[in-house]
Request: fold
Amino acid sequence: MASVRQPVVAGTFYSADAGELENSVMAHLDSPLAWDIDAKALVVPHAGHVYSGAIAGSAYASVRHLADKIERVVLLGPAHRVAFKGIAVPSADAHATPLGDIAVDWQGVADALSLPQVQLSDAAFEGEHSLEVHLPFLQRALGDFKLVPLLVGDAKPEGVEQVLRKLWGGPETLIVISTDLSHFHEYEAAQKLDNSASRAIETFNVEGLSGDLACGFRPLSGLLRAAQRLDLRPTTLDVRNSGDTAGDKSRVVGYGSYAFEYYGTARMPEKFRDPLLDIAQQSIRHGIQNGTCPNVEVLGFPHPMRTLRRTFVSVHTGGQLRGCVGSLAANNPLIADVVQNAYRAAFEDKRFKPLSDDDLSETDISVSILSTPRAMNFRDEADLVAQIQPDTDGLILQDGQKRGIFLPVVWEQIAAPRDFLRHLKNKAGLPLDHWSDGLKVWRYTTESFGAKFSPAPGATQPN
Reply:
């Protein structure tokens, strides 16, 4: 007879009444912050639903469109009640909530148990809430799926990463990391700490995480290691604290939700693309009128537009390039990086004249969001050329102090990989046939979008 693990925090962390729970979960899933994201992994808070449910809802609502694809959820959370070494799984065949039972994927559990850091232990789960509070959200967001529940004790990030890589799977598997952020600080102090946690997540800074920033820093660190190796893009969806959701701001707990997509398929929705293009145009108009780059109030924008990103901004006038400038390090919030690079592309690209107001009617502007550049390994030029992917790869080439970069859009002018590489050498100030043992090349991809310059506010439209 199948064994079913009964809920231990129903009635405290969330309603034990099926109807009430259904209504509250569905209300949280009706999140204005969500959009359809092809997420491979989510980071989601695990407090009582009244405190963190709205933040969790923004993450789970963003993957509801994947319900027909997702067959398995690998759920990892930190141990709060019982101290133990490694990672634990319970012996139950299913996990119950007031909304029904969720079957355990025993093949996935067996795969995890094949690793020495994973153990079968019901005792580790006594009174534990960090996994359970997610189950009603998963039931209503995804419908039918199987569960691999993993409770992380005193485990090293590389050990967690090994488990994740073992269970990673394809589009049928969703990874969920359960963690809250800072605990029991005054409101503004908590905001600063939670911002530090978000920056660590956005930049894969495992060393920058600790229990002070996230109670689930151990499973989270394992995800960050795996996500960086496998070229995923993190996006901050929502960060708030209990002072925002439950009122008391004297001693709050922080909550954040984050989505991880493969860079090759990551896409921003139109609701963020259009404002980015608009503010890039505003930056250039401000430069023409005032001769300076405008300041931008980053906190006035949604969290996805404040996530740290590498961007390039290109401007073309009459179909000809008039400026292209960008960032190779993710040091700025997306919105600020676009504002700065739009200004620099229009006025500081030394290859071209600065844009003038007369140019704008024939000017197009495009924004490219770069993936994390990844070093390429090669024996010689022929080996390097063979690895380059036309129409996909952007390249960064460096030898000593000389460096050049091509966006993937350059493939529209240079179709052959060998020519692409040699023109990039030329851009870096190197001979076309240059080769040395010190030559380094990184590849990356971009998400790019653009638009024609819109008329200035108040301008007379042509008939």
